[in-house]
Amino acid sequence: MRWAAAETDDGGVRLCPLDAMGKAAGPVVEVPAARGGIAEAVRSRPEADRWVWRSTAEIYPRLLAAGVRVERCYDVEAAEALLLGHEGRSGAPRSLAAAWARLRGLPVPEDPRTRTAQAEPQPSLFDPGPPPLPPGTDPLDALLGVYAGQLTRTEAAEHPGRMRLLTAAESAGTLVAAEMGRAGVPWRADRHRQLLDELLGERYPGGLEPRRLAELADEVSRAFSGGVRVRPDLPAEVIRAFAREGINLTSTRAWELKEIDHPAVEPLLRYKKLYRLHTAHGWAWLQSWVRDGRFRPEYLPGGTVSGRWTTHGGGALQIPKVVRRAVVADPGWRLVVADADQMEPRVLAAISRDPGLMEVAASGRDLYAALSDRAFSGRRDQAKLALLGAVYGQTSGDGLKHLAALRRRFPAAVAYVDDAARAGEEGGLVRTWLGRTCPPADGSLAGEPADEAGLPREQEQPSYGSTAGARARGRFTRNFVVQGSAADWAVLMLAALRQSLAAAGLRAEMVFFQHDEVIVHCPREEVDAVREAIATAGETAGRTAFGETPVRFPFTVAAVECYADAKG
């Protein structure tokens, strides 16, 4: 049975059972704050198989702190964001108050400002709360009204069944995110300090740069003539210093610096690498984010328009390889690190229904190697460039030649992303397989990288469209249908893995996730069971998301004591 729960301003909760149409199916029950509020309300109703509430991120961490675990939920605000996007209103306010206002024809309140790693590098005690409902509004009435409206809107979607699955998966992802945030990544602060001391040297008082950075800064300055002091942490100053020596740069990005011959380049590149470590994961980061042997980031499921997760501060999704030395399992435990193998090409095979590409993706073998045997004379590098070029829009040079070979062998797959690019350039809405929708033509694509395949930027040339903006949107939508569908698969995989670990009664817990990688922290004796659960979750997610296809979704799995040992 489904139950709906809405908290009141005084910390109590109003709740009632629901029927299949989202309507109240029984009397309203009130649990005041003095009697435990929402934690007691949920704990005392084990028969509830799904909870409908405003926001998992706001409610579930408090339930977990009270020792209450929920099997399933429906996050009204997460669903509202998906439905708004599907209706061409991506970015519109998603709060319960905003959804209720739209339903009643009232002024729509803006959502609170979302924290980001750039805007707020450490946890805040002053986060704004959700916008309030109009005075006198019963929060349960608002919740039920919005929920019923969302069910109706879901049935009006292009593919209602897929949209139902997507909203359910996104809500499941919010539960996973809260549980991972509470569990935390095992983190050895002593090892972290040791590696900082090794790489950066001792710290100077007064907030000055550590010794190794100061030495490299001096080395950079000495490499330029004229005895002028150059601060390598200021790009404009570095560009001026090179200009004085007849070298014109447009930026201080590593790829551009590596193209010039100058004695300042080598120490400058080393400085940039260490400076990034110092500012992003240095002593200040360690003090702010690691407590009681755990790093607990706040995950934001669907934080990008493509559905990929982000975090509120902490840089959890950008842990440098060297810092992974500090991620160490508890004594007697292991970190089971699982990377999905060639996830996006496999997703392309599933959503395009290309017979040839599905056949290639039907085994656990390296997909690029299998592809190279079919169309590229055994050249794995060419097969990888061709397939990623099709997804990311590489259509010049060798990429164009490789793409032509790919098009001959796998026409349906290439046509699928070509159609998405064309629709994007023409201003149309483009959707993932389950229905997650890209922003409209005048929407923002901020935060959506265009070169995640590692392809040189100068090779990313357009193939359609009449304006630069249209072509850029086409490149984005070409990638969106694959990357977004991969994100949908990933959140279904997390949901299946969560369910499997709980059903088996294991002590194992998911502690980290990014894009195509998940880490489970478990007792050593549970490693084999966790490996099996991960493999099963990948295949279950594939069938659930894309139906019965021959495409497999294997993982490369390593069980290690230290995260740094998981990858070569």
List keywords for this structure.
5-stranded mixed beta sheet; alpha+beta; 568 residues; 4-stranded antiparallel beta sheet; 10% strand; 14 strands
Helix content: 40-55%
**Percent of residues in beta strands?**
5-15%
- Mind telling me the C-alpha Rg? 25 Å
Category from helices, strands and their pairing: alpha+beta
- The overall average pLDDT, rounded, is 90
Name the strands of the widest sheet in spatial order: 3-2-1-4-5
Distance linking N and C termini: 48 Å
> How would a textbook summarize the main sheet?
5 strands, mixed
What characteristic shape results from the CA principal axes?
globular
Record field, number of beta strands: 14
Total helices: the number is: 20
Low-pLDDT runs of 5+ residues are: 115-125, 446-464
General description of the model:
The protein is an alpha+beta fold. The protein contains 20 helices and 14 strands. The model is unreliable at 115-125 and 446-464 (pLDDT under 50).
What topology does this entry show?
Elements: E1 2-7, E2 13-18, E3 29-31, H1 37-43, E4 50-53, H2 56-65, E5 73-75, H3 76-86, H4 96-104, H5 139-155, H6 160-183, E6 185-186, H7 189-200, H8 211-223, H9 235-244, H10 254-257, H11 265-281, H12 283-289, E7 290-291, E8 294-295, E9 299-300, E10 310-311, E11 333-340, H13 343-352, H14 355-360, H15 367-375, H16 380-392, H17 397-409, H18 411-425, H19 468-503, E12 509-514, E13 517-523, H20 527-546, E14 555-560
Parallel strand pairs: 1-4, 4-5
Antiparallel strand pairs: 1-2, 2-3, 6-8, 7-8, 9-10, 11-13, 11-14, 12-13
Helix pairs in contact: 2-6, 3-5, 3-6, 4-5, 6-19, 8-11, 11-12, 13-18, 13-19, 15-16, 16-17, 17-18, 18-19, 19-20
